[in-house]
Amino acid sequence: MDYEKFYITTPIYYINDKLHIGHAYTTIIADTIARWRRFRGDDVLFLTGTDENSQKTVEAAKKSGEEIISYTDRLAGAWETAWEKLRISNTDFIRTTEERHITTVNDFWERLRAADDIYLGKYEGLYCKGCEAFKKEDELVDECCPDHKTVPEFISEENYFFRLSRYQKQLLDFYEAHGDFVAPAHRFQEVKSFVEGGLEDISFSREKQDWGIPVPNDPRQVIYVWADALVNYVSSIGIEGWEEHPADIHAVGKDILRFHAVIWPAMLMSAGLPLPGQVIANGYLTVGGVKISKSLGNAVDPMDLAERYGVDALRYFLLREVPYGHDGDYSEEKMKERYNADLANGLGNFAARVSTLAEKEELKALSLDIEFENQINVTNGVVVKKMEELKFNDALAAIWELLSFGDRYVNEKKVWAIVDNDNRRQAIFNLVMLLEKVAIILKPFLPETSEKISNAFQREGDVIYVKKIDALFPRIK
Ligand code: MSP
């Protein structure tokens, strides 16, 4: 078989706390795309990991009274386990404290320096520790960082700078030539306007810090969080690997889009390396309209939801409820409503209904009625198109329309009561094929459910046996 390589990444997450549903959201999006690509026959590399070289880590370790190394090991382990429990299909997990990353960051720095894009200068300005980023006065609301609601600290120190300003034209030309470099489109517009507004050189190191990767040949400084973190995408596969096949998609949240769509491409240009194919940005998950974050104390635990509703139900909610690229509000009521309406009554009920009809029959392979064939083809086409447009919610809606079509057919034909054996078997055959098709196309979205349904089918010669599929999604009160 002819495999296409496909490389997708999530952000690497800070480990100052356990993960919340906002982190899970970005990772589940990337996982859905990774699974979709595998489903379409690609050979997928899927990278996630942890961003450990931050002051946040130092403070969190101190707070928990642990040595920093054992703290980072413990937390990185906890994140990795959490992703396993959420059935995330990553093929690599990178930690920024790993040797392979440190080596790559050093090589990368050397390349930028050799290109004359690194120089020593003085930095004065406001720094938000929550964002690990410098802030301009006009980005603040009531003197606070709008995301973290904290007052940034004034910093004055000697730093190494990256000549970002040099890349304005090159970036704009690149955006022009790659019309879908950032998706969704409205986010690309924001990025372009930002770059058109002019770029300033940015600080790439910090003074007087004892945690982080030291600047090569100047151990008084450590490499600034982002100049270190972004390189992880290369560290996973090595510089040569990246030259051969850079990331196809970086999936990120809108809060870190600029780092990925402006600074990162400029760093790669400076290093003489190829640029990623696309950066896609999700909106914020909010609770009562407020961004979920640990510092605001409104975190929703995805592990708890996965336990109570199931991993697939959590995936379904996030993919179906929030149009990609927009903010979406989480509430337990909405979660329960989606669960009961679409999963328990919708998919679960249909699977039970069809399998109950089918288990009593010996079903020979027949040819599918034309209306079923058409309906299935239409759904396929819509799902492929919607996946290209990152409209996961519409892709799922299309699959649910196919389910409704099947449901209507059962009711209108009163399939259970058809007396003529041939006619009844044909009707049930149609429904079984439809259910099987749904199971197949749901694979990237609801992997466990897809498997459960597919496992109920067994073929022997040209006979299809269907086992009863019991409550896939028991109703929740
Ligand atoms: N460590 C940096 C990323 C470095 S990537 C080279 C970082 N980490 S983070 O843990 O703070 O957040 C990472 C990502 O988590 C965000 O970009 C976003 O994708 C996701 N989210 C965190 N909170 C979120 C919401 N409330 N809603 C949606 N996504 C959120 O930034």
Q: What does this molecule look like?
A:
The protein has 477 residues and is α/β, with parallel strands linked by helices. The chain has 2 domains: 5-282, 3-Layer(aba) Sandwich (Rossmann fold); 331-466, Isoleucyl-tRNA Synthetase, Domain 1 (Orthogonal Bundle), CATH 1.10.730.10. Helix content is 49%, strand content 19%. Strands 3-2-1-12-13-7 form a 6-stranded parallel sheet, with helices on both faces. A 4-stranded antiparallel sheet has the order 5-4-6-8. The protein is elongated and about 85 Å long. The chain binds 5'-O-[(L-methionyl)-sulphamoyl]adenosine. 5'-O-[(L-methionyl)-sulphamoyl]adenosine (MSP) binds next to β1, α1 and β12.
Low-confidence region ranges = none
Helix content: 40-55%
Question: What is the molecular shape?
Answer: elongated
Spell out the CATH superfamily of the largest domain: HUPs
Report the bound ligands by name, code or SMILES: 5'-O-[(L-methionyl)-sulphamoyl]adenosine
User: Strand order within the widest sheet?
Assistant: 3-2-1-12-13-7
N-end to C-end Cα span: 48 Å
In the CATH hierarchy, what is the architecture of the largest domain at level 2?
A: 3-Layer(aba) Sandwich
- Supply Rg: 25 Å
State which percent range the strand residues make up.
Answer: 15-25%
Category from helices, strands and their pairing: alpha/beta
Mean model confidence by pLDDT: 95
**How is the CATH topology of the largest domain named?**
Rossmann fold
